[in-house]
């Protein structure tokens, strides 16, 4: 079967366009994900998932694209909407017509009773694609304030100087880079269209299917086995952080997963450091300096952690700032890697441990009290030791974490995808912050989770009651 899945419409503003399609036309948002280049992948659809074509709302970049908004089909009808409930849609559009959307040219939307076809917007399909019935531009003050606030907040948040402490190199590649590098090394991807690949990653990460989630890393790792692949992904990593307003980042990766192309462990680290240095130099030259330190990960299901600990010590003066133990928590306790942690402690090297994500309090306890971690990767399950968040009464482990100022590297979007949290609004980061825990906000895997630091902060502002000022103070 073949069908047109998406039609692109150039729009002025994502949120304004979304409001038009959802409120005036009754569409639903099928996708709304940030892209590493700062744009968003926004798809709206008229029907249930998988039943029809979607519209890709693309924000106009530059004068040429902006000029097309409002006149994308040269005055002809832009698209035809068929419906099985004409009365409902007519009523919705009539109601929407009493409000005002930005009017452009002679565009209009006319219910067409004879054909039971709603004809939307002559000459538009822009964002907002024109009034259902032509009306003067007359947003209510409340509407204008809301629209302005959304735009200003996103911009302000992007410009805030930010730190990210938990971000995986192999989870944050640019889709176009994955496509190009995969072509160079002969690796087969689910699709060779960068936008389609980004959508595939986002879908796989949200599928709730662990096999699909893990498969996403296979494709990024496949293109990180050569010097060229590592140099490019490391350099772009830094540039993407800079574009996101990050001024200090800690990137983590497992060198042992990048030796399939014949590089040795030290060569992997040297190459990544070279790429990071190139990125930092370019970012500084562009006026957006960012400092990036490296955490080398041992994999908890393998037995090379002691070797990786040696690698950390060897490169401690060359940009490597710590160690982490990553991989599936289930069945692979960090205490299996005590030799690595003891060596690092003897060498005064700090380390963090992924804990309290898939596994509960025992994993956090073991990471801190048996292994000696200074930070905890995720740690959302520390709330298991706070039976009543409202009362603020802490169990002994939670008390230890708060009172010893153990930093929790929290990653809300990632936690939603892996089921460690149920919603942004109820993510423990907010309650823990309010209880005085040292929480930090992070992305975890920017490509796989379709996120950025700006997006994570924006989500907390929009859905969890944070303010821009809180974000600024909390960085
Ligand atoms: Zn992680």
From TrEMBL:
PROSITE patterns named among the record's database cross-references: VOC
- The annotated regions of Low complexity compositional bias extend over 97-119
InterPro entries given in the database record: A_deaminase_dom (IPR001365), Ado/ade_deaminase (IPR006330), Glyas_Bleomycin-R_OHBP_Dase (IPR029068), Glyas_Fos-R_dOase_dom (IPR004360), Metal_Hydrolase (IPR032466), VOC_core (IPR037523)
Q: What is its EC number?
A: 3.5.4.4
Keywords in alphabetical order: Hydrolase, Metal-binding, Nucleotide metabolism, Zinc
What Gene Ontology molecular function terms does this protein carry? adenosine deaminase activity; metal ion binding
Which BP terms in the Gene Ontology apply to this protein? adenosine catabolic process; hypoxanthine salvage; inosine biosynthetic process; nucleotide metabolic process
GO CC list: cytosol
Cofactor list: Zn(2+)
Q: Which enzyme class, named as a word?
A: hydrolase
A Pfam family annotated for this UniProt entry: A_deaminase
What range(s) does the VOC domain occupy? 3-139
- The record's region (Disordered) falls at 97-133
- Tell me which family the UniProt entry assigns to this protein: Belongs to the metallo-dependent hydrolases superfamily. Adenosine and AMP deaminases family.
Q: What is this protein called?
A: adenosine deaminase
What organism does the record attribute this protein to? Streptomyces afghaniensis 772
């Amino acid at each position: 079967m073949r069908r047109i899945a998406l039609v692109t419409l150039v729009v002025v503003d994502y949120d304004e366009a979304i409001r038009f399609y959802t409120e005036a036309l009754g569409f639903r948002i099928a996708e709304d994900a940030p892209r590493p280049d700062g744009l968003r992948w926004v798809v709206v659809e008229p029907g249930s998932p998988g039943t029809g074509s979607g519209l890709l709302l693309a924000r106009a970049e530059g004068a040429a694209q902006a000029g097309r908004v409002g006149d994308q089909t040269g005055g002809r009808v832009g698209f035809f909407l068929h419906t099985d409930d004409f009365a409902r849609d007519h009523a919705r559009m009539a109601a929407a017509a009493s409000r005002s959307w930005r009017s452009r040219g002679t565009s209009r939307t006319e219910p067409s009773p004879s054909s039971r076809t709603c004809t939307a917007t002559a000459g538009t399909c822009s964002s907002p694609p024109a009034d259902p019935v032509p009306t003067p531009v007359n947003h209510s003050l409340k509407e204008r304030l809301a629209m302005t606030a959304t735009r200003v907040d996103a911009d302000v948040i992007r410009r805030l100087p930010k730190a990210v402490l938990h971000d995986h190199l192999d989870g944050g590649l640019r889709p176009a880079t994955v496509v190009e590098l995969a072509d160079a090394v002969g690796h087969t991807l689910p699709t060779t269209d960068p936008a389609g690949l980004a959508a595939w990653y986002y879908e796989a990460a949200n599928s709730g299917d662990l096999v699909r989630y893990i498969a996403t890393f296979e494709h990024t790792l496949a293109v990180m086995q050569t010097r060229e692949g590592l140099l490019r992904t490391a350099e772009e990593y830094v540039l993407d952080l800079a574009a996101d307003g990050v001024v200090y980042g800690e990137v983590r990766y497992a060198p042992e997963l990048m030796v399939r192309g014949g590089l040795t462990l030290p060569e992997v680290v040297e190459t990544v450091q070279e790429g990071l240095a190139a990125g930092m130099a370019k970012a500084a030259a562009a006026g957006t300096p960012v400092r990036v330190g490296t955490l080398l990960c041992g994999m908890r299901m393998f037995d090379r952690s002691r070797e990786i600990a040696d690698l950390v010590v060897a490169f401690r003066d060359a940009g490597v700032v710590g160690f982490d133990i990553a991989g599936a928590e289930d069945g692979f306790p960090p205490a299996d890697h005590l030799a690595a942690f003891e060596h690092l402690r003897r060498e005064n090297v700090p380390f963090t441990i992924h804990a309290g994500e898939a596994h509960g309090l025992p994993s956090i306890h073991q990471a801190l009290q048996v292994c000696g971690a200074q930070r905890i990767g995720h740690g959302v399950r520390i709330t298991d030791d706070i039976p009543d968040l409202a009362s603020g009464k802490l169990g002994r482990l939670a008390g230890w974490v708060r009172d010893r100022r153990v930093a929790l590297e929290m990653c809300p979007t990632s936690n939603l995808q892996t089921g460690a949290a149920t919603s942004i609004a109820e993510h423990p980061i907010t309650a823990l912050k309010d209880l005085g825990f040292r929480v930090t906000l992070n992305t975890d895997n920017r490509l796989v989770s379709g996120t950025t630091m700006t997006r994570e902060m924006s989500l907390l502002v929009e859905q969890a009651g944070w303010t821009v000022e809180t974000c600024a103070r909390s960085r």
